[in-house]
Amino acid sequence: MIKHFFIERCSWIFLFLSTLLLIIFVAWIDPAISIPSILYTVFLCAIIFTIFIFVRYHKESKYYKSLKEWETNLDLTNIATAKSPFEKIVEESINSQTEYLKRDAAKSQTALEQEKDELLSWIHEVKTPLTAMHVMIEHLEDEKVKSQLTHEWLRIHLLLDQKLYHKRLLFIENDLFIEKLDLKTVIFKEIKNLQSWCIQKGIGFDIELEHQEVYSDSKWLSFIIRQILTNAVKYSEDADIIIKTYQKQSGQTTLEIKDFGRGINPKDLPRIFDKGFTTTSNYRENNATGMGLYLAKKAAKPLLIQIDVTSIPKTETTFLLSFPKQNDFHQLTSM
């Protein structure tokens, strides 16, 4: 900050030093003026000016230091009070801009919430005929047609469900209810929802749950597991999906979901949780949205769930979900 201060005041300092040099020059060419007296006067003026500069630096830089340290938000409480006329001009400008941005942010938030409510309402309305359609499909006698329609119905259902949680994700902190959950109940429910698809693709499940109790939110945990299981079923064929749990030395419960499908290219692994990313491999699939794992990762963060992935191309893919311990949620549950 002191460097900026001297750059800002360099013209004033230059003027003062030029004036002192001019006085010395005049004393040097005028024999009637005592040079030692002038040099003594110049020396005293230089000391006084140096003291003045440092006093003014501490006084004038206080406000601008607070501006420099100000975080990029709309909270102005950490900014020092303006003293000089120029500082007050800056303060008035910042205050007016901040008030404008607050009003604009409030309007955007209101519009976003209204859009979310309208979309959620639409999704719930669409689910009503979708449920009726599922009941009608169940009464079909032609098993081949029934299987095909059930698969397409499930795709629509999963896409609507994904969109529903995508909109809820913006307000996930207000939607969390942390409690002790039974993993077996959550996992079996999600497997049952995918049952018709799994039968069609010849996929089974090998389940071994040593540790079943975790602390999480039931809706969002179900959603995360749903996205991983959906991917596992989608990219597998005539193979079992292994689901097991174990406990780490740290006391954390880990859920492992392993499929033996096409695997993930090593160069794609760091990007599978990116929004909209599908694959760089030459797979001709236009129905992938690249949103499932992105939303799962985003939902896992406030739940303190660590998701890790390992994969061998054309062999297997393993997702590891490491759950937090109860005391990790102390701050969250005490709010």
Topology:
Elements: H1 2-8, H2 10-29, H3 35-69, H4 85-138, H5 143-168, E1 179-182, H6 183-193, H7 195-201, E2 204-209, E3 213-216, H8 218-234, E4 240-247, E5 253-259, H9 292-300, E6 306-312, E7 316-322, H10 330-333
Parallel strand pairs: 2-4
Antiparallel strand pairs: 1-3, 4-5, 5-7, 6-7
Helix pairs in contact: 2-3, 4-5, 6-8, 8-9
Describe this structure in a few short sentences.
This protein has 335 residues and is an alpha+beta fold.
Radius of gyration: 34 Å
What does the oligomeric state look like here? single chain
| Amino-to-carboxy terminus distance | 40 Å
Q: Figure out the total of helices.
A: 10
In the CATH scheme, the class of the largest domain would be Alpha Beta
CATH names the topology of the largest domain as Heat Shock Protein 90
pLDDT < 50 stretches: none
- The amount of beta strand, in percent, is 5-15%
- Class by alpha and beta content: alpha+beta
As a percent range, the share of helical residues equals 55-70%
User: What strand line-up does the widest sheet have?
Assistant: 2-4-5-7-6
Mind explaining what this structure looks like?
This protein has 335 residues and is an alpha+beta fold. The protein folds into two domains: 2-98, no CATH class; 178-333, 2-Layer Sandwich (Heat Shock Protein 90). It is built from ten helices and seven strands. It has helices at residues 2-8, 10-29, 35-69, 85-138, 143-168, 183-193, 195-201, 218-234, 292-300, 330-333; strands at 179-182, 204-209, 213-216, 240-247, 253-259, 306-312, 316-322. The model has no long low-confidence stretch (mean pLDDT 85).
